[in-house]
Amino acid sequence: MSIVNLKDIVKTYPNVTALDHVSMKIEKGEIHALLGENGAGKSTLMKVLYGMTRPDSGEIEINGTLVEIQNPMQAINIGIGMVHQHFMLAEAMNVVENIIVGSEPKKNGRVDYYQAKQEIEKMIQKFGFSVSPDALVEDLTVGEKQQVEILKTLYRSAEILILDEPTAVLSPQEVERFFEVLKRMKSDGKSCIIITHKLYEVFQIADRITVMRDGVVTGQVEPENMIKTSVNQLANYMVGKTTAITNHAQERKVYGDICFEVEELSCKNENKVILDDISLCIRKGEILGIAGVEGNGQSELVKALTGLLKPNSMILKLDGKTVKGTTKDFIKQGIGHIPEDRLKYAVAENMSIAENLVLGYQDSEEYCKKGIMKLKKIKSMSAGRIEKYRIKAPDFKTLINQLSGGNQQKVVVARVFEETSKVLICSQLTRGVDISTSEFFYSLLRAFGESGGATLLVSSDLEEIFTLSDTIAVMYKGKIAGLRKKEDFTREEVGILMTGGRLDTGKEDHCG
Amino acid sequence: MGKGNSNKVVILIISLFISLIVGAVVFAMCGYSPLSAYIAILKGGLGSRSSIIISLSQTMIIAFMGLAYITAIRAGICNIGLEGQMYVGAIAAAIAGVYIKGIPSFIHVPLVLLMAIVAAGLWGMLVAVLKIRFGANEIITAIMLNFIAENFTSYLVSGPMKVEGTVAQSERVQDSAHLVNLVDTPQLSSGILIFFFLTIIIFLIMKYTRFGFEVRVTGENALAAETGGISAKRTMSIAMFTSGAIAGLAGAIIVIGVNGRFIDGFSSGFGWDGIAVASLAGLNVIGNIFSSFLFGVLRAGATVVNRTARIPYDFIVVIQAFIVLLLGCPKLSEDLYGKIRKIAVRKGKKDE
């Protein structure tokens, strides 16, 4: 008997059938990957299971009994826990407080903090977590915050855990620890459902795979067939057509002169050194990848190079000429920027696609003459780009918040790639973006290089760094811990540098 | 898009309807007949030529304030200092109107208005400057600046600028500083033309110019604006100057158009009504005209009812407050709307 049995679930929204007679079974003590592109319906299915949304029809059986889950509270009582992609934690409170809130152990009418802490310490040991119970949440790394979220569900004695894109925000080392925790939970008899679109990961960890596309289950892989299944096969289930995952390690031509050069970049914040004497250079046509665990100065590096942050010292040259001034000047000189968090830094959600395609280039004569916007021009430009960049939207008037994450990123990408001539600074280019769109972005990036553009690529996804970069620099605590041609680095070496280790051989200076 | 807007309108109407019901309950509880009270208010606001003129006059001032509020909120600043900016504009207008003598009207009137614009604009921009330079919360500074403006102008017309007599007010402005009246009473001045002109200008700026684009992006997402090379600080400062200037202009029009002088504490909460009507209009400059008219009629009608039927003015405040309250929790009206629609659909099916 399956622990969860979803039968014939249908959920429609106006104009969209999110779930079209979906059935799925989860066995006790298995790690079940729910795979699919953005908008395939996997999140909706899990929301149904967690009681966040009611299906139009269909049945849910837990341990063989028919249940009706009307809200998350009921789901928790049945033993279902969910860890959302965006954490819901009180930053100013400590780990124990965050875990027990809502189900505090009581003793004589008071919260029995001591008992709670003991219990949580036991769980931390049992499942191999690394977080300290007394730490304040605001001091935790992203990986540790995720542990708190998982502990929260375990503390409420969840037997079925739903994890929404759990590895999207983790560094490779954190991913490994997370997988370790998953395995221990599994051997403890808990069932885990991972919502993901990362193909390779699925093979590493999952016992069983369900693939969804457009609200329908398109493929299921049973444990006994795991070895026989290929990545391409799964990709086909997901995308619906034969998309061979291309091998990007093609021969590349030798690149040109030095294009973008930064020296002596240092930045302090309240006496804390954030960037420490960084020097980098990018040649024409080169892609320089910046690897590193998030929070080691990458964000500040990007902000300094795009004029958003005034560092304590920096010499920045583009084609031999010094770059100075505000962000506006940087943009005018041909430095394009794809920020790490599109909703926070790149788009105005309540404005149209057309307006967001212009943002950053509103001073350009193309779109504005004597302070008056050229609306006709902007409209025709937008219509063209929506087609060229395959943005799924009815028209250019569509608001950004009506688009899926991947399509929002396409708007940003379209804007920056079309308007940028010389240097591209991009950060977490494919975060929350499905494979086919990622592939599309990768090909754009390579085309930009072939046309002589210089690219700085910041990513916490090591695969992405190795796929795209010509040269790799690793950042650790505000410094460049190592810099080599991609061929001279192994993933293990980069991993060591990312976590503060040292390599025997020094870094090479490829600009010298 | 269109569908969303029509939903909004329905929700608005439901909010109004509930407010009127609540008002009726309050009337009934206090021993007045709700129906006759509402009729009296309507008559008082629209019943005669003179009451229509009073309604329109009130509408104009409220609409100015609504427009001022919208201008600032579009750039992401909630300007609740409208009341103070209005007083500053009014006192500047009074100073220029009373003490500058011997110049022709076509110079004097624009000069008065310009003085009001500059003074109130700077007063408004102060809020933005304090926020940007020192990180001061704009709500708190604006409220404090309201107190300063209201009490300082009160001091001026009770002391240095006071006209002889018992009332705290300034002298009458020079004849050359008077705005032309549209009708035979001074209540409805040509200020209303200035208002329509401003509304059109702001509508056009927001929609068609680069500056308007920069303001809207800043208001929607200041960080994205910065990434796009827009100085959010500069945009916010200009927007606050404009917002203050519009509020000040309304103050000036009251001084040189309606009252003919600065009367201590002349504003009976116009600034606050402005925030309400702007929200009611969904921050749309055209919608602002209609919501202001609603509030203007209620205000004028209530004043009359207060005199004739001895129904306290506060009843209108209750109704207005409920409208704002219901708009402040759109979920409530939305839920109600959803339920009503469901019932309608069910009924429709039965009928088939």
Give descriptors for this structure.
heterodimer; A: 512 residues; alpha/beta; Rossmann fold; six-stranded mixed sheet; globular; B: 352 residues; mainly alpha; 77% helix
Describe the structure.
The complex is a heterodimer of chains A (512) and B (352). Chain A is of the alpha/beta class. Chain A has three domains: 4-239, Rossmann fold, CATH 3.40.50; 256-334 and 423-506, P-loop containing nucleotide triphosphate hydrolases (Rossmann fold, 3-Layer(aba) Sandwich); 335-419, Rossmann fold. Helix content of chain A is 33%, strand content 26%. Chain A has 17 helices and 24 strands. In chain A, β19 (368-369) and β20 (372-373) form a beta hairpin. In chain A, α14 runs parallel beside α15. The longest helix of chain A has 16 residues, at 172-187. The mean pLDDT of chain A is 88. Chain B has 352 residues and is an all-alpha fold. Chain B has a domain at 55-283. Chain B has 14 helices and no strands. In chain B, α3 packs antiparallel against α10 (232-259), α5 packs antiparallel against α6 and α8 crosses α10. Chain B starts with a helix and ends with a helix. The model of chain B has no long low-confidence stretch (mean pLDDT 87). The chains are: A alpha/beta (512), B mainly alpha (352). Chain A binds chain B through residues 306, 308, 326-328, 330-332, 337, 339, 344-351, 355, 358-363, 368, 371-373, 375, 397, 399, and chain B through 1, 208-211, 213-214, 216-217, 220-221, 223-231.
